[in-house]
User: Fold these one by one.
Assistant:
Number 1:
Amino acid sequence: MAERVVLAMSGGVDSSAAAVLLHQQGYDVVGLFMRSGESESACAIPTTGLLPVVSGPAHRQGCCSSEDAADARRVADRLGIPFHSLNFQEEFRRIKDYFADEYLAGRTPNPCVQCNNWLKFGKLWEFAQQVDANYIATGHYARIQHNAAENDWGLYCGHDDNKDQSYVLFGIRKELLPNILLPIGTWEKPEIRELARDAGLRVATKKDSYEICFVPDQDYAGFLKRYRNHESTAGDFVDMKGRVLGKHDGYEHFTIGQRKGLGIAFGEPRFVIRIEPETRQVVLGLKDDLAVQKIAVTQVNWLADKPQTDLRCLVKVRYRQHSEPCRIVRNPDESVTIYPDSPIFGVAPGQAAVFYDDTRVLGGGWIQPPQ
């Protein structure tokens, strides 16, 4: 009897190709589309980019629209696999709460990671157990491998360097790794599109989307006002000495290290150095002011054995940034302190710091403001 796997289907090409591969490999595949249950967003399971993918109003094309649900169902029908569309309104509200809390606290949230932790590899696994499935699967570009010599499971980078999504998966519970399948992790994106095309799937040419599913048009201020009745986050741009340089429309529009889109001109490039929600000030400075030589990280999730001594590894502090060689020190409270070999620029509180040994994800946690 074939082993059953519940696959998160978003209606995009990646999860659709994953369905084809699992079906070809002989699994008993069950497709699941996750709905937010709210009119502004019928969010499925996004699998691309730093942040979840946009849905917006029903007429807007995106990963979480009604069109995506229809695309996912068509793929399931073509492959002859069962398909479910379930309401996860409470879980999506938790992600929205997190997003709003982080931005109003002056941090840069990463809801894609939390969506993975709470939904894709949380509620998805709960559903899988209800239908007697052995595995859950998604269309992420990453790999899970078993080391027979050490009888250990690990999370690894995907083969496509341009699409690797291991960074956003660091929060998976280690004990779940043997029950997770990532079928497209050994493929590159052009190959995935060709696979979908050969399977006769019209999503083969469907564009990827990289926006936030519950914030149409990236209007963070509008979302905060609607969701939290927050009237204004507007305030002053100030320099490193506190001198007012100009006005901004809302500090949620900015992240540490940002240079473009400030809406104010200077004789030399200025960058966002710090965000101070209490005063609604956005502090600007020069590039050298961004240099960080110590990073505090909490809520650490280890996907390999916890180091007993200082750890030398690579660390990535943004999804699209290169990893940097660092020394990691575990603290008595299970937080860690990262000491990069060379200063890292643009470290944003609220983002994830993920630790790598070559291509293996050792673990990761959440960056805290400097003390």
Number 2:
Amino acid sequence: MNFYGLVDGTDASLKHYLRELSGVDQVGADARAAMLATRSIKTTSKRWAIDTAISMVDLTTLEGADTVGKVQALCTKAVRPDPTDSSVPSVGAVCVYNDMVATARKHLDLVGGQHVGVAAVSTAFPSGRASMPVKIRDTQDALDAGASEIDMVIDRGAFLSGNYIDVFNEIVAIKALCGERAHLKVIFETGELVTYDNVRKASFLAMAAGADFIKTSTGKVVPAATAPVVLVMLEAVRDFYSMTQRRIGVKPAGGIRNTKDAIKQLVLVNETAGPEWLTPSLFRIGASALLNDLLMQRMKMDDGYYASPAYVTID
């Protein structure tokens, strides 16, 4: 495996690599995130920001009550978010449980969404509590069903216990399954990692192990994608790029529900990692309700008034 010359795959080298990481100034991270949250964008840039945010959405449904019909409707919306306006871009991907991957892929292809990916949550999502053979089978099932993106969860218990090599090896194994046919997003569940130092450590561990994206959370635990946590992860991918010349994506998920929240995320990306990350290939937003608000704000820019939610399709 190629670990970018940072580790050799042993426990000793991984622990040395993680010990050498700089710590996070918690007060400074909080202050910078709060400052960036006050930034506004020009009205002339708002349409671009809304369309960019739409293109970055991983339109998500992860409920026990999901049905074939609900997933099909979500896929239709993913391809044509506003059926009355073909200039609205498609979303980045549809994110579903494994058993809905084949349904999503088939329906996306049927409605002209071959360019929209299917992301499958994997490795015993959301808890990550399962044996490695189960996690491998879970991932292989998703890939066989047509998933082009795998959103895996790390074993937070192992990480918090200092068993970093176990977490590292799981990521390596899942990435080996994905190969070149699927991008791997590694979910930390930052609300359970507690400290910014742990978030930074998990970020570098996952990137060295082969992650294509690092992701804040499952959306099932609060807090989820807070601005300071996203800031810490964006600083990590920026620093990792300086070390390796490889750009890794970031996906905040959980709690991003309206256009104002989404635009704050874009400002964070631009001011922290840089404008090169302002693309769906390097930044995604895991959300369900967000898309409707983006569409309503877009309609307001065209019509001059804020449309009722009845004017957009229900997810």
Number 3:
Amino acid sequence: MISPKTWKAGIVAVALAVPTLALAAGGPARAEAPRVVVTIKPIHALAASVMDGVGTPALLLSGSISPHGITLRPSQARLLSEARVVIWTGPALELSVEKIVKNLAGKAVSVSLQEAKGVRLRKLREGGLWELDDHDHHGEDEGDEDEERADVDPHIWLDPHNAIAMTRAIAEALARADAPNAAAYRANAAATVRRLKALDDRIAKALRPIRKKKYIVFHDAYQYFEKRYRLAPAGSITVDPHRTPSPRRLYEIRTRILERGASCVFREPQFAPKMVDVLIRGTPARTGTLDPVGAALPAGKGAYESLIRGLADNLRACLTG
């Protein structure tokens, strides 16, 4: 018969063993991720992919809020004040973020992806009517040199090669801020880069048949995408999406549609479509929708790839319809 003393000792041993068994079953405990805030959805998707399994970054600007100007709500200000890492595109798009981060998240690590190693910057195009020259068709490795911040086209994420460079930069910034999870960030980044390379190959093949098709965009947001895949845009309705174009400008765009045979004019979901409808009335041009930030997409690690596929699909649908 087991003595009370022996029975008690056995119970204690079992109780001590339970946490050890539970730990072994669940694998090694992972360190808690830092609070990470990302400004816009495409960049947030890259950060979410890098942080997969470690933590979830917060998205500062969701829905149809334009990144060209930021007015923070109290909840957004609180997000920044609690952040340890803030990831943003850079001053070319989010000039106000620099001051906001210093004021609200002064101790946070600030990651400006515009300045990341390997990101190719392109100079803003002048005006809104352009023709691609021979230089733009020579190959993907040719392009503009890096420019000063004020002259930079800010839509850097629309070239998947830039997205690859940004993914690596995000992983390294997080690895420095959170050393216990550095290996996970780098492994996730490597997997993300493989997916982005495969995506880039698929998009290049899908867009090859429409390279010479002329079209008009709502505002000049797509240069990185267009030059990456050697497309043939004829112009944009507006240079600044927050300023209504003049009647003269609309007349010039309408003339371009008729003279250059632009077969499609693209609107954007964040802005009223009436202007586009008026512009194409009486012309053979069709309308389509392009969205440079993925306003309608659910936030998360798959949003970037969905955004790029959506641009390609909508271009093909309108230009081959």
Number 4:
Amino acid sequence: MAAVSEYAFELALCAHLERSRNWVLSRQLGASVADPGSRVIDICGVVPGSRFDRRAAITSETIPPRAVESDVGPGRAVDPVDALDCPPAAARRVADRAVDVGFFEAERRGSRRHVRATTRYPDWFDRLIGIENKPDLGRPGDLQRQLRRDVSLGLFDAVILATESYVTGAHLNRIPESVGVWRFDDGDGSEHPRANGEAADRGAADTNRRLTVVRDPTPIDPEATGVERTAERPLRTDIAFASPEAKARKRRAIAERAYGRGWRPRADDYPACVSMRPTDDGRPHCRAFERTVDPASDCGEDCPAYDPGDPPAVDRERLRDERTPWVADPAGVARRQAGLDRFT
């Protein structure tokens, strides 16, 4: 079975941050404006703002960014095709989803289906923290280019490099000065909360020991015009400018995606194998190999330790609700919960 140190490191860091910071955390989110999909940030930490509770009351899921940006308000109901800046079929799909999650409600006006917002969308987060994971600095890959891009685009209020390697001055000189550096001991393979009572009881002391701040990040201004590298070739670098307005829309979309998604694997990602013993914080831990595994690439009938069994019971929503500001089952804000299928 292939080593999955970067995956295990990423999940261990998320679990650590969940214990030590009051953030909403998610993994593997798109972080580009001009070239969507060309940059994925490993971990995003959303720092709640003063209106976080108003956002949490709406829905536990992601509110479609196009619905948030639309001309649909809590006043008069409007035709979504007219109110959303996208093709008619896409507008209807966005409206359907916004109704499903409780941000829109629907009614019929004559022969047309109309929607209104159940509440005004709040300005609910304070900062976005982008974290790039590189456990082994001896194999940096495109690290320098990625971090330069993150800093110049400025979608995040701070950018941090997390590593397990010993960090030297040479390492620090190769990355932008504004990027913070954390050294994190993921502890994978040495402790399992359900098997080792001592590990489960270490609490705050262990939380402080495992992460060392090598360098604090310098704040980045997300309201400034960003510069995004879209292509790099010998003697030529193509760039695109990202306006403050475009960046604000992207930041809101990142925060919404993070809120709805979280960092744990989906429930159906855990393999139905007797060796799968998830940790108390929900990481997919393999008893046979005594470490966190990536179910997508490591598990299955080709694994020499595979032994069919019942899938593990991992309540992602309960874990997240108990350990973070996220609310699993909010009361909602709709005056009436109605699906669009009632009006079709």
